[in-house]
Design goal:
Length: about 240
């Protein structure tokens, strides 16, 4: 049992180090600093036994997309690793806002005024400080969450001046089958226009491209944890 645990830890550390090396190489190529880029390990669908070796290896920043899943597996892990930072990278339903504020440290998927209003209310009620991002639907996909590019400025203004919550940056998920660089460029352009410079973009298959376009947060799942059974979710979230 001890040998198996050690092997899992060594395998996890190797996977993590390999990704960190690729991030550093991409940063150098883009004339950027490695320290400017935050790795979000997308742990959705993976159990605590899979996540634990990465925590023991020192990684603390993880991404999840379902409130219910987080409720089941992360409180016990936080008990032992209180400096964990959890990012919500999946759609946020209005009836889950209260739990999301309680469970997460960063919410990357604000996409409409109603969610912004509920978040503002819960943040004040729970007296909690959260980092917040607006999700942009850069591909204008009807089946995908995110505010339309031309509505970002309005939603940002509502968050700042009406709801009194601070938006740290922008997030996007490029459409499958399209050149992700096009969508990273769109997000960066919107950021310049609205005065935001933090971008959550790039996943296992395209994070080096995202770094070249200014990503400050990259969301990587399968390249660290291995492939999931649900390929649709894998492609959408890392």
């Amino acid at each position: 049992m001890q040998s198996a645990t050690l092997n899992r830890l060594e395998t996890s550390m190797s996977a993590l180090q390999a990704i960190l090396m690729r991030i550093e190489k991409a940063a150098v190529k883009a004339n950027r600093k490695f320290s400017e880029i935050t790795l979000i390990a997308v742990s959705k669908t993976f159990n605590t036994q899979t996540i634990l070796p990465f925590l023991k290896a020192g990684h603390r920043i993880f991404g999840e997309n379902r409130v219910q899943e987080v409720k089941k597996k992360w409180p016990a892990l936080r008990h032992h690793f209180p400096d964990i930072e959890l990012h919500l990278i999946g759609p946020l339903q209005s009836n889950k806002v209260s739990e999301a504020v309680r469970l997460f440290d960063v919410i990357e998927t604000i996409d409409r005024d109603k969610i912004a209003a509920l978040l503002a209310q819960e943040i004040r009620r729970q007296n909690k400080s959260l980092k917040l991002y607006i999700q942009v639907n850069t591909g204008s996909e009807s089946q995908k969450s995110g505010v339309a590019p031309h509505n970002v400025a309005h939603l940002l203004n509502q968050c700042k001046n009406y709801h009194k919550i601070y938006i740290e940056g922008l997030m996007c998920i490029p459409p499958l089958g399209e050149n992700p660089a096009t969508h990273f460029a769109i997000l960066k352009k919107i950021g310049r226009e609205v005065g935001l410079s933090r971008f959550s973009m790039g996943m296992s298959n395209d994070f080096e491209t995202a770094i070249a376009f200014g990503a400050t947060h990259i969301r990587i799942g399968s390249a660290i944890f291995g492939h999931r059974n649900n390929k649709k979710n894998q492609s959408l979230y890392g």
